[in-house]
Design a protein that fits this description.
Length: 426
Amino acid sequence: MRATVLLFAGRGLVLFAAVVAAFFISARLGAYEFGRFSALWALMVFGAAVSSLGVAKLLLRLLPAMRAQGDLDIDPGALVFHVLAAPAAVALLYAGMVQVLVTRIGMFPALAEINHLVPILAVASLLVSVLNVLAVFARVALGTFALMLLRDGVQHLVAILTVVALGGFALGDAETVFGVFIALLLAANIGLGMVIARAGPFRFRHSAPGMRLFRSSYWLNGLTGALMSNVDVLAASALLQPEHVGLYVVLRRVANAVSLPQTIANDRYAVPIAAAHAEGDTAAVQRASRDALSITAGVSTVLAIAVVALDGVWLPLFGFGPSGAATTTLAFLTTANLLSVYFGINFMVAAQCGLELRALRARALGLALFGLLVAMIVLLRPAATAWQLALSQMLAMLIMNAVIWAQIRRRLGIDTSIAAMFRRVS
């Protein structure tokens, strides 16, 4: 019970930081510049997944096993190559590709006036990628709460600190603010790295055996997961005008509150489900899936109703007036999160029970469907709108969750959906 309360508190803090960061920056920058900032942020988050090469996800598996075996020596050369050198090259290539999309194809109109797009995007993506690796080392040294806070919360806390640091000055344009954000994020990475190096149990020695920290399956799973989580924001950044991008990002961040309980359930039940599957105890996996729903379903339903019903109260706080289009967009985004909750902790069960490839295919199908729907919108209408992107996201989430739920049901005999709450499990 205490662990669950701590997870709720931690996730609540992360969500609160994300919303407060959006509030402060949107209030100080205004709708147009906040939209440009949001486009940079979305491309930074995805760029971190691209440039990371899956190293953080692989280390999350390797480091606890190394500690359990008493093997605490790590080759710093291998770490520098896989965490800094190779990701830096990939980040630079990624930023260059975005630059081509902006200047040659006309995508991402919010970034058309950014003068130093390639260095800004490359450095920001690399820093977030490194931060994710530091979070994994913190998980081993300081516990699960540290992993969650560093991986999901530090960027937002640094964004808040950026506004505070510039509190006595006019914030100016998005490029300036993002440059200060990058400088503070670099300082945070250096400080966290020093703290973790002192507190952690690992020894960094050149005599340690080399580590192979790239595996394509980890990279692709992380890449598709990050893309599925942000594809609608990326599409909004690519197709909408800056002020509409800013509004979409605010709606999306608030709607994400609905999925907060499910994120907590994933953290809470990952280890028990993996252990039960290793022992061949299908009934225990089913019970854990149903118990997770007892945490998520009711709370998420209440959150969904409150978020949509009170949009006229909280939306003006971010500098945006309530409107029918905004409410419709919010309703679709909230429903997408709620559907994911009702299908249960399906992707986590798949990952812990040997169905990683099935999960990858389900995400790929969801991405393909979203891309098809957006392509149809672009071809059939003169300009895409926010509610159309939100509807596409909702449909893609529905199909993606239904596919992996059906695979788990057929291959493992486990029902992760809300229907399991109404059946008795032995």
